[in-house]
Here is the input.
Amino acid sequence: YFTTSTLFISIRDTVDITRDIVKVRFEVLSISQRMIDSLLSMEENQKKYLLLREDQYKKYFLAALQEYRNAIWSILWFRYEGFAVWEDLHEEFKAEFPDLAAGGELSGEVWIPHEKLNRWMEILLAARRENERVIETGMRDLYALSEASVNRGVNGLVVSVAFGLLGIVYLAFSVSRPLRELRRGIRAFTVSGKLEPVRVFSKDELGELAAAFNEMTLRLRDEEKMRTDFIDMLSHEIRTPLTSIRESVS
Here is the structure.
């Protein structure tokens, strides 16, 4: 039970760490990469539009801007330590594009200053590096926890087997000792005809059997004593008339 409970606790901790890594950190890593790609695309198409003045680059910029908005909305569903950086980015996005952030259409100037794009990119890269560091730390914790679980399981199995063997030896000894006593008492009766009580070592079924054997021995002893006393008395009582008969016959 101790080994099983220890392994259960280790598995539960492993599942918690795995859930945080797979369902939170990896998702945040994927969404943050989408945001970085969107910022790079916005910066590239903004420069191309300002240089070439072709409307297709403005469409590409707006598509990347929509992707950035969708990604930042997706990342807001997650809650973990260090989550405030995404809320700050969302607030800045709302301040820059209030209509788009509210789910409406763009109005007014759509371009983003180059300095702001660079700052958003730096924040995203820093948050991504921190997320990768947490993933790496979590993977190391998973490895250490798995290794500790294996060691605990092996040690618990060895200890359980050792205690089981000791229990088997004790059980065999506790069963064989009263049986040996019973065999000794029965053998003594068959060899010499004398009933000797045996020692009672326990109060289980074998102990009750030994106690019943001792009770039988005492009763047989009493009956043997009564038989001997009766024969002695009969011999003494019949001696006098036999003496008289013998004298009369003589």
DSSP finds six helices and no strands in the chain. Residues 114-192 form the longest helix (79 residues). The mean pLDDT is 82. Residues 158 and 220 are 52 Å apart (CA to CA).
